[in-house]
Structure formats: structure tokens, C-alpha cells
Design goal:
Length: about 240
């Protein structure tokens, strides 16, 4: 925590705020004892005690213990949404490059945000294709007891969903032989250690109805004979859930 000195009353208010992002209504309620809560919010932003991520969404400054996890922010800035595409490829270790912008999928229209914590982009996906393969993951900066707290966990595409989201609009993939070229040359993904859940892939393929996704799933099934994959009969594999 910073060595900045605060008046006792200000320090109590500031340190009683959540470590993770919170909205305007919560902040107004927390400052309800002030004559003008809106003016208090403006002063807190000016003094860098809290940071406005976007209109109506705030974080206690990291100087005062705020935890700036961009994956959690991504779900809160625009929703419903889940992290996918390049950010999820990096999260799952599927690509070697560092990704600067946080990329997400939403079942609402495309959006793009510039924030004090970087760029957040959202790509539209039809609601019928949205849910299969979306996971709830714990933030690296949260404690074990925080796991089911929506402020300390985030929604992200599984490896299977991430790859299908990424490949869905790739026009260069027309058949099975195009898949490894795209994965290895364009994404620079390591296909030799790619272990995926085939039942989940098949379900995503069914709802996506995209030639590129179908080509990817069929290519993977043809080349996954030697991999140890979950067996539905053994209790593993995909089971449809909604987040």
C-alpha cells in the first residue's frame, strides 16, 4: 500500500470500498452520509483515490489496495460478455504473443472502449451460439473464498470455444488442409500438444454452423487419435450448462 497520508475519515471511507471494480450506485450508497456524494466522487477521482474505468464503473486506486485485474473489468465494462479471441488464446497458452487489448465476445452489438487500464473490445455473437463452452475462472488476485463472488471471478471461453470463436470468421479456411496452416503460421499455435474436449467441440460446431469451424473440428478429430481425451462414458466430456 502507498505511504500517502489520509485524514482518518477519508481513509476509512476509501479503505472500506471493495478491492475490485464497483458501480456508481454502490459508491453513492457508500457516500450517502455526505452532503453532496457526487462532489465527493469528483474529489476522490481528482485526488487519484479512485479511478473511473468508464462512466458508472470505478476502482479503488492500486495505491490504496485496489486490484486492477483487467479480466474482471472486461466482464463489467460491457455485458453480457466473456473473454475470448486473442486474449483467451494467450490465457490458455495457445499463442506465444503478448496481447495488449482485452478481447471479448458479447451477444450485444460490437463495442470498443479506451480506459485508464487499456483497450477493451467486444465482438458480437448470436445468442444461440453464445453459451456453449463458457467457463467461470478465478482471478489470480482473489482468495479461495472469493471464487463464487462475481467481483473476483470472470467469464472466459474454454480452449475449445476460444479456437472456434477465432476461426469462425476466417475465410481462408475452406477445408481440412487449410486448418494446420492457419493454426501454425497465422496463430503460431503449438498443435502437437493441443488437447481438446471432442464432445464440446462437436456441440460448438453444431450451433455455430460455420464451414471454418466444421473444418477445424473434423481436422482435430482426425489428428487426435493418440491424445488422451475425456470420455463421456467415463463421466468426462462436455455437459451443457448456462453461465
Amino acid at each position: 500500500m502507498s505511504n500517502k497520508t489520509l485524514h482518518t475519515g477519508r481513509k476509512y471511507i476509501l479503505l472500506s470500498l471493495p478491492d475490485f471494480p464497483f458501480d456508481y450506485n454502490y459508491l453513492m450508497w457508500r457516500l450517502r452520509s455526505y452532503r453532496s456524494p457526487r462532489d465527493k466522487i469528483s474529489r476522490m477521482i481528482k485526488n487519484s483515490e479512485i479511478i473511473q474505468i468508464k462512466k458508472g464503473l470505478y476502482l479503488r486506486s492500486p495505491d490504496y489496495g485496489g486490484r486492477a485485474d483487467r479480466k474482471i473489468m472486461a466482464n463489467l465494462i460491457y455485458g453480457p460478455s466473456y473473454i475470448s479471441l486473442d486474449s483467451a488464446l494467450q490465457y490458455w497458452g495457445l499463442i506465444p504473443e503478448r496481447v495488449e487489448a482485452v478481447t471479448s465476445i458479447s451477444n450485444k452489438r460490437n463495442k470498443f472502449y479506451h480506459t485508464p487500464f487499456g483497450i477493451f473490445s467486444y465482438r458480437y455473437l448470436h445468442p444461440s451460439k453464445y453459451y456453449p463452452g463458457v467457463l467461470l475462472e478465478k482471478s489470480e488476485t482473489s482468495g479461495q473464498r472469493d471464487f463464487h463472488n462475481s467481483q473476483t471471478a470472470f467469464l472466459i471461453a474454454s480452449k475449445e470455444k476460444t479456437l472456434c470463436d477465432k476461426l469462425a470468421n476466417v475465410k481462408e479456411i475452406r477445408n481440412l488442409k487449410d486448418v494446420p496452416d492457419y493454426l501454425e503460421k497465422d496463430l503460431r499455435a503449438d498443435t502437437e500438444d493441443l488437447q481438446l474436449d471432442i464432445p464440446l467441440l462437436e456441440h460448438i460446431e453444431k450451433v455455430y454452423k460455420k464451414k471454418s469451424v466444421t473444418a477445424f473440428v473434423r481436422w482435430y478429430k482426425d489428428n487426435a487419435v493418440s491424445l488422451k481425451l475425456p470420455s463421456p462414458e467415463a463421466g468426462g466430456g462436455y455437459k451443457e450448462e448456462k453461465c
